Amino acid sequence: xxxVLAVAHRGDPYRHRENTVxxxxxxxxxxxxxxxxxxxxxxxGVPVLLHDPTLERHWGDPRAVARLTLDQLAxxxxxxxxxxxxxxxxxxxxxIPAGRLLIDLDTxxxxxxxxxxxxAFGAExxxxxCGPVTAMLAIRELAPAAxxxxxxxxxxxxVSALLxxxxxxxxxxxxxxxxxxxxxxxxxxxxxxxxxxxxxxxxMRRMLRAGVDSLTSNRPALLRSVIDRAAGHR
Length: 234
Prior knowledge:
alpha/beta; 10 helices; 36% helix
């Protein structure tokens, strides 16, 4: 069995604010193979790291990021802790041996600007994308060779016609849908299985027994230790 990947959910959010440069760097330092980040667009079309459409939850501002320019967004936070652009995060992680980002797109809207930022920085070989069908089809249209993981919330696999059009490398369901039967079916279809968001040790172990290829967690250090311990016992 290949090494199971440890994916950090929005960085290392129990130690640093999610989707910030310190959080992403902390996750890699904790042993993550990949860091999953979320992208939204500013009013002037710049991809920035943010999960929610508004700034309320983490930045105390009720405005939608889509209504703010990048200059207006820069006024929030502080120089060391603010909403970063995707380009800033690509730069901050350049040269990290793991250094791979999994960019989560909830909709197709940010796809073009996100791919433009990735290609402008020359980071095509160290990013992958995940999200629902519409967002991943948009990425596939822009980037025929990009790595795409299809976020999927059904207990059975997508129809073969969709898989043929999208050509994902992975199926990406929440952990509640995953068991040995699901992973066997996915592997039989030529897909790897990534799953989210797994924060309890016992759930991590159960997913490993189910044969997943990638686990996403808010606790990257714990996830790294559980994966490594399980690998050592095989």
